[in-house]
Design a protein that fits this description.
By secondary structure, this protein is an alpha/beta fold. It contains eleven helices and twelve strands. The protein is about 40% helix and about 25% strand.
Length: about 250
């Protein structure tokens, strides 16, 4: 199970939002590029970048910063936030981004999700941001009256083989992962899931590692790393351990 450090960006700065709320922003002194280099030096195999300005505005805003990150590290970088046109996805990929994360537009226009998977295959990954099992879009500010499991199954029918699931209520709160919800999603959907939201301790990594056999392929960690609560090297080792113990 991969442990994936996150870099969330607003106005070119490294930040975290509590429960996805833009009025509850936590700023960090480290720049996005400095953070990327640090996580790479500590063993990260992949960096997850979120353009929070882009997510809110519906267009890529911080792509110049993302390009700097790509040029500063030798590991893959995936980025999400505001990608709602195939031409913008292609532009990011052409500039070295390994994978683009598609969220809001996939829920607003289901054909867009299908078309992206057909065009870019594993170079895109669909992302589900939800409060409980209710999907949210546009920077998590708008809830949708859609059946989450039905949407996930449709994504799988289009060829999705891995999906990111973020529990908004947990994200940035250091309150522990939503293990029960993840179990239901893993059992219902039958594809690999990358989980995000709530991880605070090494024990949480160990807890999630137990779901690897059911399809949990990775966990995205943010605030706990920036505040020094979790050591990334130790978290990566726990994610790779054959028999993790708390």
């Amino acid at each position: 199970m991969k442990v994936i450090p996150a870099i969330d960006i607003i106005g070119g700065k490294t930040v975290r939002l509590e429960q996805g709320r833009y009025d509850r922003e936590l700023d960090y002194e480290v720049t996005p590029v400095e953070a990327a280099r640090k996580w790479e030096s500590m063993g990260a195999e992949l960096i997850h970048v979120v353009d929070l300005d882009g997510a809110r505005q519906g267009r890529s805003v911080n792509l110049p910063v993302v390009k700097e990150i790509v040029g500063a590290v030798d590991i893959p970088v995936e980025v999400g936030g505001g990608f709602r046109k195939e031409i913008d996805i292609k532009d990011a990929l052409d500039h070295g981004v390994w994978r683009v994360v598609i969220g809001s537009k996939a829920f607003e226009e289901i054909d867009f999700a299908r078309d992206c998977l057909e065009s870019f295959h594993e170079r895109v990954i669909l992302s589900v941001d939800a409060k409980g099992f209710k999907p949210h879009i546009h920077g998590w500010e708008e809830g949708l009256d859609l059946d989450l499991f039905d949407m996930l199954k449709r994504f799988v029918s289009f060829g999705a083989r891995e999906i990111i699931y973020t529990d908004i209520q947990k994200d940035g709160m250091l309150s522990g992962p939503s293990t029960g919800q993840l179990e239901k999603i893993l059992d219902a959907v039958g594809v690999k899931i990358v989980a995000a939201g709530g991880v605070k301790t090494l024990e949480h990594i160990v807890e999630l590692k137990k779901l690897e056999s059911r399809g949990l392929s990775g966990v995205i960690v943010g605030r706990a790393l920036y505040e020094g609560i979790i050591d990334l090297r130790e978290a990566i080792d726990a994610g790779k351990a054959d028999n993790p113990v708390s």
